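[[Local backbone shapes]]
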Amino acid sequence: MNKQGVLRTLEVVIAIVISLTVLVSILPHNQTQERSPEIPNYFIFEEDFRDAVLSGNSSKVEESINSSLSHLYPAYNFVVSISDNFDYIPRLNASTDVYSKTFFISSNLTTFKGYFVRVYYWKK
């Protein structure tokens, strides 16, 4: 038996084990990200909700969204923004990741006066 061949093989195996150990410790570990809740859009088909958006009654819109979503996702805060400007972003007092869902509501197909209803939500 060739002792030098065995020693070289053992040396290579040890080098591979050390290299793999270093790689595993350096590479980032997969972190599971929490998914944001799915905001249903069934309330945008309600006539009262659409009328409130089109008339600019933001308190009624907020009440409608909060009442329908707060029992589905009690661990989240919700803020509603209504604007005819798509780029409008309100100031939010959130210390965590903020998610949003946008709906576009128009009066009808012939009269184009649409509003963007954006729901911002984050974990309490």
User: Anything to note?
Assistant: Helices lie at 3-26, 47-55, 58-69. Residues 3-26 form the longest helix (24 residues). Residues 42-123 form one domain.
